[in-house]
Design a protein that fits this description.
The complex is a heterodimer of chains A (765) and B (155).
Chain A: H1 3-9, H2 20-23, E1 49-51, E2 57-61, H3 70-82, E3 89-93, H4 110-114, H5 119-139, E4 146-149, E5 152-155, E6 158-164, H6 165-169, H7 202-206, E7 222-226, E8 235-240, E9 250-256, E10 259-264, H8 267-276, E11 278-282, H9 293-299, E12 303-310, H10 314-320, E13 323-331, E14 343-349, E15 352-357, H11 362-373, E16 380-384, H12 396-410, E17 414-417, H13 420-424, E18 433-441, E19 447-458, H14 472-476, E20 510-511, E21 514-515, E22 523-532, H15 545-562, H16 567-574, H17 578-590, E23 608-618, E24 625-635, E25 641-651, H18 658-677, E26 707-712, H19 726-743, H20 754-762
Parallel strand pairs in A: 2-3, 7-17, 15-16, 19-22, 25-26
Antiparallel strand pairs in A: 1-2, 4-5, 5-6, 7-10, 8-11, 9-10, 12-22, 13-18, 14-15, 14-17, 18-19, 20-21, 23-24, 24-25
Helix pairs in contact in A: 3-5, 11-12, 15-19, 18-19
Chain B: E1 2-8, E2 11-17, H1 23-30, E3 49-52, E4 55-58, E5 71-73, H2 75-78, H3 86-93, H4 103-116, H5 122-128, H6 139-154
Parallel strand pairs in B: 1-5
Antiparallel strand pairs in B: 1-2, 3-4, 3-5
Helix pairs in contact in B: 3-6, 4-6
The chains are: A alpha+beta (765), B alpha+beta (155).
Chain lengths: 765, 155
Amino acid sequence: MKRRQFIVSSGALVVSFGAARLAENLGLGSLASAQRLNGAGSRQLDGWLAIKADGSVTAFTGKCELGHGLYTAQTQLIAEELCVPFNRVTLVQCDTELTPDQGTTSGAQSHPTNFNNADLALAGATAREALVALAAERLGVQATQLTIKDGVLSVTSNSARRVSYAELIGGRTFNLTLNPNAKRKSPADWTVLGTPVPRVEIPAMVAGRFEYVHNVRVPRMLHGRVVRPPSANATVASVDRRSVEGMDGVVSVVVKKNFVGVVAEKPWQAVQAAAKLNVSWTPGAALPPQRDLHASLRSATATRDTRMVDSGNVDAALAGAGTVVRATYLYPYQMHGSVGTACAVADVQGDKATIWAASQAVWPLRSSTAQVLGIRPESVHVIFKQGPGCYGINGADTVAYDAALLSQAVGRPVRVQLMRADEMAWENYGVAYLVEQRAAIDPNGLIAAWDYESWAPTRGGRPGANAPGNLVTGTLAGFEPAAFQPRTPAPAATAFANNNNAVPSYVTGSVNGRAGGTGRIQAERVVTHGVRSTFFTGPLRSPERLQNTFAHESFIDEVAAALRVDPLEYRLKHLSDPRLIDVVNAVGKAANWQRRPSPMQPIRRNGVASGRGMSCVLYEGDNGYCAMVAEVDVGLDSGVISIRRLVIANDSGPISNPDGLRNQLEGGAIQGISRTLLEEVTWDDQKITSVDWRTYKPLFLSSQVPAIDIVLINRPDMPAMGAGETAVTVMAGAIGNAVFDATGARLRQIPFTPERVTSALAARA
Amino acid sequence: MSRITLKVNGASHTVDVDPATPLLYVLSDDLQLNGPKFGCGLGQCGCCTVIIKGQAVRSCITAVSTVNGAEVTSLEGLGRLEQPHPIQQAFVDEQAVQCGFCLSGVILTAKAYLDRNPKASEEEIRNAMSGVLCRCGANTRMLKAIGRYARGLKA
């Protein structure tokens, strides 16, 4: 469906929230300039906004709702910039034939992209200024003499002289490019943005009416299921199609290299056929033992090395220091483990394809799916439909390939939903990590030099426009993952960047004489080693940043403990960034932090020990400040950690929706508890063994219910930053430090299982 | 294949399916309901929950033949969009949702439990919810919403 058709008809498949104003015909009438949009965003105002004949506003965004409230926040943004009531705005999100190409909704980049002076926000400001200019001309006054309210412009001194958006441009196009000088409304004047507008989708969701990608139903639709290899490196030897002959409803068995799937009339028939299909597999190489994971990372020789900062004097500082503190931190592979398995519907007809997917990346998916199908990207139409919370690249993209391959083979629309083990054994895991830290302590008890080195395995990742082999289905169908390219030694950094938070908060981050970091330590070295991974990997909420922040925030605490000083105060002595200092002070105040060294004295030997720990970060080096205090109880016999209370201080610039922000911080923290205490991908010598919720244990609804207190620091005059990944990033460090405070036992390996806690307790002096 | 009659959200339906088909597939495919969802297919997470005879039942591991003739209530049968059930309204009031995919398990498990135990303590409610999974971490809000509904029952 092309944009114009959409605008006049708005099919139920596209807009079906159930809410009346969304289900109505968008009725934009004869908007003729339905441009096709390629590339990053759009320079054309009409690509972002339309004013209908009734004066209501339709906005088009390339950043989608993932359960984090972005749909509502973007609707608030447009209502605010255009001075119309919230319910007069309809937002259309992520459709390769309708909305601007904004790449991928990821990396906590939606607020930086769409809420600063570019893209969607700039479109709103450009449109408002254009409407003001039109009204001034129509009414014969200066623009400064006009007041706007609810989509009506009136002369301030005589409100009877007025003209509405509908009268000015309703049903017609602006024919303007975005004006980079268009002025955003001042946050001081906000009445919709910045307020806790309830989420648009929630009434339909709680009523069971919301349409997820799983509920897309198209005429003549069949149901597919995939048959993944039984072990990690197995390949297809032969497929016995007769093994499912005569089964009710079975339409086809599809084999393409190592990709195997079945198509049936009904979903349960497809499930049964996939289970019964007799495939002979050639077992591949055995998997390396899980217990050797971190040792094998440390000893890897073919590595891709990056030198993020190096002041050149770290070795000398370490050699000359009276005290050197050292520690090594270990992190496992973890899963996205979305609560619903991934699902997509594909309709491939000859050289054209329509894909309904819960992908964060409809445009890249259009290109990579075209490659999988062997057709032109321009012939593929990808429509975003919300799925379960994704937290990064879960199965949403790979299942779109599954559905596309099966639909292409049978020539009818096919819906595929993965079975639980299909997704858990083959998703792109969050990366394992090994971090080695060393600090030289000067005679005043400050850190004179910080030395960081890490090893992390990678394979595949987001497929982007041209690497379908970065996902399991692409690899099975014959595409290679992006090549791993070793690079040793690392070249010198040319500019400071801390996207993965490998650089600790406490160093200056100096590259070419410019200090880009948030701290004061001048002797600094940060070197990372990428290692070829056995398993697919990809971004999982706070990718690498969580792993690195756990290592940094545990280590600064270890140094403070070695020096017998208060860990909050010790952080402040090494920080230079005023906003990071502010969140640390704010969380300390809200938590009533008592300044004293850790651990709490006297150290308990039995019963339950209680303690508090803190952690902080500037996410991605430039995208959201967060500090947290965790208060925990530790069962000294059981090794069980209970999180009693969390206090979070967050500064992500101007707040779009305070309740939405709180929801993200709470959710990030709870998910962080699950990842810190429980989650770990496991395998044997052939295959992944964590394939369901018994073998990959997550936090269930009520097993940890801490009180959560949140301090929101609003910075209306600063740029908008991300907030979806800040709290999860600091969680592990805060818990580990609290356990140390309670017990004197230091935990350096995630997850903090009771076994690891009891052995750390036993190792205490 | 066999003909099976189900009463779902007050309406009677007869379907002709393999009697071993899990109830979930009949509800979401044959009857095209959006409420119950496939989360794991193993009865571990709760996404597929419906209420049958006052019990929260995991429809992904319940053969449709075993509920022949029974009254089934799914999330959409609890209340209407315009007139939600008080427990649904409590989730709106607390904004106790992120992606929303787990809501059948969360809301219907709580509803069935509180129908039988309207005076349940906070701790008892937590125990009743300990087998339900939310991966977005809306846990604290969801428990607040359930608590809000429970207080309304006692009042």
